């Protein structure tokens, strides 16, 4: 299934800009009509339809009367350590949950995944964790926090020097390629794609749960 991503940062112009640092490895600002900063940090986001989960009392029912627990991811934040050859990115988030039956204390465990995506398609790593929500007796709502981290090789997230030169080379009026956007070059776009990583988190849903989220 093809999924769009709600990223913390704007990808824009194919550069996959990540907001992990005020200064990046590449500044594009001369002669190409754009001004942007690119860092080696992966962008962080939640794939569409995976930020919510709904549990029903009966596995065969999807009616409101059988609704048990609903939960949603929120307050997604990221930090990134660019020091060294292994870049470490960490995402933290809160889970807000609500139950329909408030009688008795109850603990609910919800699985979530974290995955590193390269070039928008290739899965590099995937891990599954669990966030635990504790409802007190008579309590309708519960909240918990969780986190996920991943390493990315700096060499893999760095653009080759020849590609950097194509993007940043100053173009003078009258140059044959002065009006051409270097990002339209298939080789440049392919190199940017290979060097682009994303750290994505979401609930580990069953096919039925994912279908429910996508069609409700």
Q: What are its keywords?
A:
216 residues, five-stranded mixed sheet, 11 strands, elongated
Walkthrough of the structure:
The chain has 216 residues and is mainly beta. Helix content is 12%, strand content 44%. It contains three helices and eleven strands; from the N terminus they run ββββββββββααβα. The strands form three sheets. Strands 1-4-11-8-9 form a five-stranded mixed β-sheet, with no helix packed on it. It has a four-stranded antiparallel β-sheet with strand order 5-6-7-10. Strands 2-3 form a two-stranded antiparallel sheet. The chain starts with a strand and ends with a helix.
Layout of helices and strands, plus pairs?
Layout: E1 5-7, E2 26-28, E3 36-38, E4 43-47, E5 52-56, E6 67-81, E7 86-99, E8 106-118, E9 122-135, E10 141-153, H1 161-168, H2 186-194, E11 197-203, H3 207-215
Parallel strand pairs: 4-11
Antiparallel strand pairs: 1-4, 2-3, 5-6, 6-7, 7-10, 8-9, 8-11
